[in-house]
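retry 2 of 3: previous attempt timed out while embedding calcium ion. Reduced batch size to 1 and resubmitted. Inputs unchanged:
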Amino acid sequence: MLKHLPIVLCIVFVVVAKPPYQNQIPNGDKVPHPCNPELIWNAVGHNDANIGGSQNLNPFGKDFQEASHTWTQDLCHKDSDNDGFTNGQELGDPQCTWRVGTVPVWTPTGHPGIYESIYPCSRVYIG
Ligand SMILES: [Ca+2]
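retry 2 succeeded.
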């Protein structure tokens, strides 16, 4: 049993290290950064791509919080960032049929909490 301990610890670390809400929305671990689509915006409900927690929520994060951190029909049909696309369209669930643990119909097309065309990439993003 002890010879397998490092493997077990690695698995536990990977599970614990994953942001808590990524699995609660479609493609939560695949949302592209508006300034570089090759990068992933890990903290989808936050204004910082990689810093989660209860502070600094973006409009989608506030709506997700109001929905009790659940992917509901209302949250899916809502356009949290007012960019003309619903949260479901941006996260790859245009028909709002996704359920936790299933594969979304599409890959994400945008960020549900960041209005991409007005996001200040030149001031905020380096790299
Ligand atoms: Ca939107």
